[in-house]
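thought: fold this chain, then report.
action: predict
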Amino acid sequence: MNRRQVIGIGVAGVLTATLVSGCKTSSDDGGGGSTSAPAVSVLTGKPGAAGRVLAVKIDNVSQARPQTGLNNADLVYGIEVEGGLSRLMAVFDSDHLPASVGPVRSARETDLQLLAEYDHPALAFSGAQSQLLPVLENSSEIDAVTGTSAFYRVSDRAAPHNEYLHTKGLADNAGVAKDIGLTFSATVPAGGTPKTTTSASMPAAKFGFTWDGSQYKVAMDGSSSPWTAANVIIQHVQVKQSQYHSRTGYVPYSQTVGQGSATILRNGRSYAVQWDRPTETDGTAYTLDGKPLPLNPGRTWIILEPS
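observation:
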């Protein structure tokens, strides 16, 4: 056997060992090994475990568009705010962070309840109502990130739509992504109806989603965007007045604990489902005929539409 053959065999052995180690774990040091499937993200269903979680509140009026970083998010929530307008909350895992995100805007009471189903995520925001701010900063449910050197302003947009965020290191104190109730399968579930376009609305905001054969293209307030999704969930929620009032009037509080109806869009099909989240620390189940409806592996947009 010549030297080249020996080297080739050695390299092949290393590669084989590497592949096997990625799919096998040892249960103890006594040789009792056990095999397991490769890691899959609980937030996207894609290969590779999700890291620590960073959520960012993002502006969503015309002066703020196009935003930055949304196609790196694992999930994007659409949430009603004052005046019936919408804000976004993008949820990232630390292994797939964009360098910057924005424009960043202020937090609301809805965010705190929504994020309680995650495991102590970091929440980055530009500020909050004076009574809510200390609640966020002292919460055991989140790691509040606001007013730090990570925030910066750009000169080509007018305030308040020009504040952005450097994401490096912001999830270091956050919890690792945990199961929030989502299930995934590349196989298209039975049932549903063909539907390539749909919309969701708030009193003064509208979202549109169009299936192009491989993904959903996102439109906001009638304008196209560069953002895409593998799945869309339109979750019908009760909206009441927040206990943290604003000088400008009514502050919506979208309740994500409870039960209700929802529509799931995946692979050009629409499914009428039920959602259920018994307590703040529980994940949200989306079921059809009592069974979880799996999502297409990839990014999911969840619109909290007033019911």
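thought: worth noting. Residues 31 and 214 are 45 Å apart (CA to CA).
final: tokens above.
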